[in-house]
Fold this sequence. Notes:
Layout: H1 6-23, H2 28-59, H3 63-67, H4 81-87, H5 90-120, H6 129-138, H7 146-155, H8 173-184, H9 188-196, H10 201-212, H11 214-230, H12 233-238, H13 248-257, H14 262-269, H15 273-279, H16 285-317
Helix pairs in contact: 2-16, 5-8, 5-11, 5-13, 8-11, 9-10, 11-16, 13-16
Amino acid sequence: xxxxxxxxxxxxxxxxxxxxxxxxxxxxxxxxxxxxxxxxxxxxxxxxxxxxxxxxxxxxxxxxxxxxxxxxxxxxxxxxxxxxxxxxxxxxxxxxxxxxxxxxxxxxxxxxxxxxxxxxxxxxxxxxxxxxxxxxxxxxxxxxxxxxxxxxxxxxxxxxxxxxxxxxxxxxxxxxxxxxxxxxxxxxxxxxxxxxxxxxxxxxxxxxxxxxxxxxxxxxxxxxxxxxxxxxxxxxxxxxxxxxxxxxxxxxxxxxxxxxxxxxxxxxxxxxxxxxxxxxxxxxxxxxxxxxxxxxxxxxxxxxxxxxxxxxxxxxxxxxxx
Length: 322
């Protein structure tokens, strides 16, 4: 009586859409442009996806066919023995746990630390705000080099310890820029009203700024997680005497360099008859490399689609002011 029914609203919406279509009727030039545009971007998408698809179908296909290069567009002799065999290696399982641990813990700590520093740098009451902000940004462009970095880490006792994966990444200058810009876009009146109600800086940060900054926090969380997951230089240089702390990427690097001997190592690494039977089928160097690559890449491919919405929103809003 006082409002329109759902069906009436749907009919109105459909009528408006039809009117817009009639008003903005596509010309022949528009149709040609759209066709070329969709074709080019469709081909580009296929070019991006095909390498992952190619590696994946080679990991689940018959190993002898893979070794002869016969698997190109679709899998044959499908099985998952390669993944079972790789995951039964003690080094891979341990490296997977280490990488997952550093990705989760390192990302969480980085998000909290970087967002709080960014919040402080928006406050005029912070002593030397401009100096510290510029000093932080300079580190994006200048560094002492690999050897001084290693010597510094060694003097700080951050070699052969898990904390070497966490502490150096606490402050991420690029992430601080994004979060600072985003926080500055939040209306200052919200914070002023919280001050009037007696809230302190920490209370305002945790109960007001933090919830409102979820899009940009999700964005820097993606950056941090991908960086931690893909990192292997710190593991390669700092963990010489702690092989139990090697990351998955480091293990991939080692296996790719000595993959010709990996089959023999896998035969003796299972520890039981069932494992040995599973490992016996994986003797091809190409299959080993493909399978380890997929084990390394799959987690990121699975997680990213769920975070993409926040990522796009956060990166756009965090870059509004430049």
